[in-house]
């Protein structure tokens, strides 16, 4: 994907993060899964389906686990996929790896607020996933979560 497309899809993920029900104990995150042809395959946001649902989980949950399009897709997430999680058996980084998504684009790395030392990017890259950070959109992703950052 070219830079303009990456920025556009990541901006859409940030827009989705604004749909999250308010929380004082979790980030508001949006995610978009885009096929190799540029078609949006799925979208999701935190707390979309239940109080502990994460954005990547919501987006992945709308597709069949064996959907072959996932093998060439890009996941856009307004926040680094989580590496540890108390509310589910697998953190989002592991869900992305299991889905076979080869590329992830993020706006912002998870700060040490709820989980110290998030290693989502590290887990993804160790599994061979290409991770691209677009820090030019980080301020917008943080702004959605300003109430948590004080």
Which helices and strands, and how do they pair?
Blueprint: H1 3-17, E1 30-34, E2 40-45, H2 55-61, E3 74-77, H3 92-99, E4 103-106, H4 120-126, E5 130-133, H5 138-144, H6 146-149
Explained architecture:
The chain has helices at residues 3-17, 55-61, 92-99, 120-126, 138-144, 146-149; strands at residues 30-34, 40-45, 74-77, 103-106, 130-133. The protein has 150 residues and is α/β, with parallel strands linked by helices. The longest helix is centred in the N-terminal third of the chain and has 15 residues, at 3-17. Strands 2-1-3-4-5 form a 5-stranded mixed sheet, with helices on both faces. Helices cover 32% and strands 15% of the residues.
Class from secondary-structure proportions: alpha/beta
Total strands: the figure is 5
Mean pLDDT: 93
The spatial strand order of the largest sheet comes to 2-1-3-4-5
Shape: globular
- How many distinct helices? 6
* H and E order: HEEHEHEHEHH
Main sheet overview: 5 strands, mixed
Any idea what the radius of gyration is? Answer: 14 Å
> How large a portion of the residues is in β-strands, by DSSP E?
15-25%
- Poorly predicted ranges (pLDDT <50, ≥5 residues)? none
Separation, N- and C-terminal Cα atoms: 35 Å
Q: What share of residues is helical?
A: 25-40%
